Amino acid sequence: MQITYDPKEKLFHLYNHQISYVIGILKNGHLGDFYFGKTLTGPLCQAQFRMDQNRGLTNYIETGDFSFSLNLERLVYPCFGTTDYRPPAIDLKDSRGSRVIDFKYDSHTLYAGKKLKNGLPSMRPSKDRAMTLEIICTDAVSQATLKLFFTLFKEEAAIVKSSMLINGGASSIEINRLMSTSMDLIDHDWQWCHLYGDWIKERHVDTFPLHHGTQSIGSLRGASSSAHNPFVMLKRPSTTECAGEALGVALVYSGNFLIEGYVDSDGRTRLMAGIHPQNFAWCLEENQVFESPEALIVYSDAGTGQMSRTFHDVIRTHLIHEKWQNKNRPVLINNWEATYFDFDADKLIALAKASKKLGIELFVLDDGWFGERNDDTCGLGDWFVNTKKIPSGLGKLSEQIHAEGLQFGLWIEPEMINRGTQLYREHPDWLIGDPNRNYSHGRNQYILDFSREEVVDGIFQQLIKVLDDAQVDYIKWDMNRNMTEPFSTALPANRQGELAHRYILGVYALYEKLTDRYPNILFESCSAGGGRFDLGMLYYAPQAWTSDNTDAVERLKIQYGTSMLYPLSSMGSHVSDVPNHQVKRNTSLKMRGDVAYFGTFGYELDVLKMSDTDCEQVIQQIDFFKKYRTLIHSGDFYRLLSPYSNQTAWMVMDKEKSKGLVAWYQVLARSNASYDVLKLQGLQEQALYRITGFDTPVSGAYLMQFGLMIRPSFNGITTTSDATGDYQSRIWEIERFTKETS
Ligand code: DGJ
């Protein structure tokens, strides 16, 4: 890992054994975005990356010079108002109302490691695993300073980028756009791939070729949302899971965001990501600082699978808190689908006792334990135990659950309020909304104004009373509606555009306070399922509830899409009852387990109603998961077959390529079908492996080049097929028998 600066060529080169990022200081002082990709070697100079151009209908900067226009350059952090007409990375309004801005290189510093962001989640590599280049640019007229941060990792093909604005002038500046990253790529022969969705159908994959003009995804919901995940991948049209170039950008942010691609008439691509500029206006007073969230950018020249594995590695080692990085996540039972709001302490204890017998490790008490919460019309904001349901309180209940040999987990939804609560009676003005307008609701609830410190603190004070009293090992932090009528009665007119960002800063502040005070509590983020599954949340909560949809078939697409960047150790995945509560489908207990293994694993059903045979099967499933938990959570994940067809397959191999699991799923039976052949990945060619179904070891080469033969579904003649009927699944265990000989 090296970051070099060649003062003669005015060239920065950030490189490790996998990637290079080359930045040049252009002749007008702007920063040229020269190269991001596979490691470059040999001497580098500006002339290798750019050319003077004299083109028609172009505006040039220097009088008499027809060779240099920003519109023809590839830029690191483009500004608005001089000669570049493409979308800018930064949009400011100075006190005179001018939006023209012209940041030029001033100086730079280099240091080991990386600084954390102030109040924002950020990547946190150790000092010896990363290096940072900080480039300082100034705008002479506004006297603002722009700092650009570039962190290179030692091992991974990834960089982190962010920006910071400092107002050094004597009057305020309005920031309307300050993107975390902007990249100008030399061509547009890319496909844009993003994860879109909705409640119970999160993170489905959509792919289309880049076109001239703008293409974008984003959120204006106050949360990153299930509509679009804050992630975009560009891949070459010929790129597959195993080969070809791919470039992924993900934001370490949970609020309103925009990821925008712009292809100009010359076919160059500008890819930007950051806070959504719509309804964003930040008033930066003299000497104040504003920091953008970070963007994590990954490059792969070995397909989309490799890109995902790099994301997984970077997230697991440099984002997730070190406390949870290598800690086994407990197999949990959640009472939500077993009881909904209808429970009491006896029922909970009975569920816990039965769960313990099955091998479950953590009992999670979901929604309904507090205030007057008997349905979803009431209770949010009153974070004290409902003694009608739990007469002896949470302290006692958690003690009883622990006495059964289980950890105890609790659901909260701290950002929300219902009217009719004690909190609402005391603080009717704590809601986000405009008193001159209607307050729209979602699930009968309203959002607390977390841009206000006293609101965050009020909720914190309530929560610590509960958490100090009970023995809580896990918290599921839910968020079940998005923001409407974004208006804060506490902000002045010129700061209303700050609300959405201040809100998410308030959410982060509460996470910070709670994780500081209770470092041993494992947090799982949730937003009506996977409505806020992002890198910002994973900084505090190492796992997230992937989706309320626990149907095994639907989960194939959801988990497949989620795996594009999020590691399996972050994906909450549970076995639930049938008919499934979301789509009413009946799938086998086997298939539900086979899908849920590839995540944090748990159950969400009434174990007291299960048959003895099902209990026996659940015991086996939990044993199996425990045997492979470390492998699943720390290994390399390979997507083998896409769920956008009748069959899905994936596998996990440990880093040594010695042990793994292969899973195959089929949605519908096919009549009179031939056998299928599933090619594996990630093995050592020359090594021999023992694999389920083979009496003798077979080579990695055979399994990857020829593949595993899978017997067809019932075809009317044979009854000995491995998979019969609809909704089938199979798992193979694979273990290296002899090492590869070179
Ligand atoms: C939405 C979550 O996604 C569910 O798992 C459950 O916790 C409910 N909220 C409770 O209201």
Multimeric organization = single chain
Number of helical regions:
13
**Low-confidence parts, pLDDT < 50 over ≥5 residues?**
none
The helicity comes to 10-25%
- What structural category arises from helix and sheet content? alpha+beta
- The averaged pLDDT comes out at 96
What is the global morphology?
A: globular
Radius of gyration: 27 Å
Please state roughly what percent of the residues sit in beta strands, choosing from under 5%, 5-15%, 15-25%, 25-35%, 35-45% or over 45%. 25-35%
Ions, cofactors and other ligands present here are: (2R,3S,4R,5S)-2-(hydroxymethyl)piperidine-3,4,5-triol
Largest sheet geometry? 10 strands, antiparallel
Distance between the termini: 28 Å
Q: Say how many strands there are.
A: 40
